[in-house]
């Protein structure tokens, strides 16, 4: 009986909780722009930012990874750093496509032009037994 009460209490708490990605204003576009502002992501045109945010979710819906979308947002917006593109994409996902929250993602590694790769040396064959 005690276990039933604990489980019932837990279910009631979970049922009453508001999801983190809930739309408090009823206007997802305004929420997205507010998320960009909170994250410090620069944008010049709100309509373009909204369109790009929704496009990021369309790409993820098509099976592109968040890292691929971040790279795309970064390369298509000259003023964006990879960090800006990451914050932008994360904001878009949290507002427009929360079903993708929690999918494996990391910032794509920055391109490196001076990475040294050592030569490959052939290893001798192991001795015959």
TrEMBL record:
The keyword Transcription regulation does not apply. Residues 1-22 form the signal peptide. InterPro entries: DUF732 (IPR007969). Residues 29-99 form the DUF732 domain. Residues 99-129 are annotated as: Disordered. This is DUF732 domain-containing protein. Keywords: Signal. It comes from the Bacteria. It holds the Pfam family DUF732. The keyword Signal applies.
């Amino acid at each position: 009986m005690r276990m039933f009460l604990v489980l019932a209490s837990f279910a009631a708490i979970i049922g009453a909780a508001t999801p983190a990605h809930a739309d408090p204003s009823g206007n997802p576009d305004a929420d997205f722009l507010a998320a960009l502002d909170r994250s410090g992501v620069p944008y010049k045109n709100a309509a373009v930012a909204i369109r790009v945010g929704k496009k990021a979710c369309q790409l993820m819906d098509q099976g592109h990874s968040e890292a691929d979308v971040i790279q795309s947002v970064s390369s298509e917006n000259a003023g964006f750093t990879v960090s800006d593109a990451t914050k932008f994409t994360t904001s878009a996902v949290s507002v427009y496509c929360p079903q993708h929250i929690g999918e494996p993602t990391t910032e794509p590694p920055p391109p490196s032009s001076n990475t040294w790769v050592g030569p490959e040396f052939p290893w001798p064959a192991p001795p015959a037994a």
